[in-house]
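Thread: Newbie trying to understand structure tokens

Hi all, I'm a second-year student working on a class project, and my supervisor (Dr. K.) asked me to get a predicted structure for one chain before our next meeting. I've only ever worked with sequences, so writing a 3D structure as a token string is new to me. If someone could post the tokens and maybe explain what I'm looking at, I'd be very grateful. Here's the chain:
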Amino acid sequence: MRYCKIELPYVCFSIDIEDGIVIDSAPIGKWMIGKNINEIIRWVEKKKGKIYCPDELSMCPHCYCMTYTSLEGICEKCKRKKT
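---
Reply by user tm_fold:
Sure, no problem. This is what the structure looks like when written as tokens:
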């Protein structure tokens, strides 16, 4: 199981993913349960939001900050891709 945080301009909440499918969510995202994570990523991007997975928390090799890694592997502070 993987925990992910969704940030939208108007709300932040979390979802749990297993085998690429949303299995649990905060009440505002209950409609996501049973949907594929790729569908959710597209929806979040359309809403101009971001999705993070805190279990990928690590030190950025570029700016040495401790920050959430986006699904694309981009540091939120320096905006560079982690390698």
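A couple of things are worth pointing out once you decode it. The chain has a mean pLDDT of 80. The longest strand covers residues 11-18. Feel free to ask follow-ups in this thread.
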